[in-house]
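Long-time lurker, first post. I've been practising inverse folding by hand and with some scripts of my own, and I keep getting stuck on stretches where the structure tokens seem ambiguous. Below is the full token string for one chain I'm working on. Before anyone asks, I'm not after the true native sequence, just a reasonable design that respects the backbone. If someone could post their per-position residues I'd love to compare against what I wrote down in my notebook.
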């Protein structure tokens, strides 16, 4: 994770957060392109940063969300990104609205095999799904390196 991204992560975490002794997973860009499953124990993490994971997931987004929930200890934090308005409009000519309820799957005019997919979601849609497994602490629709961001806690 870049130093700028780390500063953004620190800004998003609760004021009482301390890094010392925490078990952290920086779940990178390619991590979610396969079927869910990581060789880690249940509840073994305190923080998962999934800042470039969910956009290319057409098939496995919900499975990976369940997997990250499994890995987090009670009270553990998940920071997850989704494409913001600017990125969504650049990837697909889709009307934007804060209450847009749904998803758009695009490959930017290319075949999915060539370009890979981009799953464009609204903040509303993201929160509606993530609330099934997490307490949503914060939602920022834009400003996180071309993405919106959700900060969630495992109950």
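-- Answer (accepted) --
I ran through it position by position. Result:
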């Amino acid at each position: 994770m870049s130093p700028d991204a780390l500063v953004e992560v620190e800004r998003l975490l609760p004021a009482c957060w301390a890094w010392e002794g925490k078990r952290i997973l920086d779940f990178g860009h390619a991590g979610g392109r396969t079927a869910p499953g990581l060789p880690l124990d249940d509840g073994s993490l305190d923080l998962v940063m999934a800042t470039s994971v969910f956009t290319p997931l057409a098939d496995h987004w919900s499975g990976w969300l369940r997997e990250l929930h499994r890995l987090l200890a009670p009270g553990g934090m998940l920071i997850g990104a989704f494409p913001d308005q600017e990125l969504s409009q650049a990837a697909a000519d889709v009307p934007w609205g804060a209450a847009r309820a749904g998803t758009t799957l695009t490959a930017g005019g290319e075949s999915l095999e060539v370009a890979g997919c981009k799953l464009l979601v609204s903040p509303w849609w993201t929160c509606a799904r993530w609330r099934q497994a997490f307490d949503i602490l914060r939602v920022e629709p834009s400003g996180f390196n071309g993405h919106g961001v959700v900060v969630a806690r495992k109950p």
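A couple of notes from the structure itself: The chain has a mean pLDDT of 76. Residues 3-12+23-32+43-153 form a domain with the Rossmann fold fold (CATH 3.40.50.150). Happy to go over any region you disagree with.
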